[in-house]
Amino acid sequence: MALDKKRRTPSNKFIGKRKKTEQHQRIVSELLDPDSTQGDAVQSWRVFRIMSEFVQGFELLRDHGLAATFWGSARTEPGDQYYKAAEELAARLAKKDFSIISGGGPGIMEASNVGAFKVGGRSVGLNIKLPFEQKLNPYTSESLNFDFFFSRKVMLTFASEVYVYFPGGFGTLDEFFEIITLIQTKKIEPIPVVLYGKEYWTPLIEFFKNDMLQKYQTISPEDLELFQLVDSVDEAMMYITKEVKKIKNTRQV
User: Fold this and answer.
1) Is residue 3 included in any domain, yes or no?
2) CA angle 199, 188, 204 (to 5 degrees)
3) H/E run at residue 26
4) Considering the domain boundaries, does residue 5 fall inside one?
């Protein structure tokens, strides 16, 4: 290791070189192909693959009118109460001409696609290979497979006019915070954001109120109105039906 002779610490020159190398490695691992022997110049053309995923995604989504995107755990089994609720809610929305969009995998994603599929609705899956989402579920009428997580995430984030979040893991929370941040900062207009399952979501909402709002003042009181907590399909349908009528522009993309 290159050390400064006086301080016996890594020199600024070495640190700068190391940071540059680390940044380069991150680009390779996340955007390019770390196993490729083709060289950086050729690998940079991978950007066009990323562009093609955006183009295909937007072309698919622009063909839909009102749409509802469902999020939730990929680990939720078909017999689970939340699986059944997601299936029922998706079916009822599909009957009202909503396209149902999910990440295309198992669990809650599959449940929402099943609901739409069974009633002859438009059932869309935007899939990617992940440890718990190995393949596209068979209940989609339209689908896309993504190689890049971030391009799929953009499509899911801007896909719909209604966003329904069932109990889920980090991915579900990531998408939830993405949407309410976009609404809070007025990057998109207010749209129905539904948190389904009071038992699961109440502790997080209490954290919003007690810590973020009251203790640290990192959010405003009106920020707690960006989403709606529900505990039944009827309650979700009532809220969505009422709020969708307020949307001025029914196409976010």
Assistant:
1) no
2) 20
3) helix 12-30
4) no
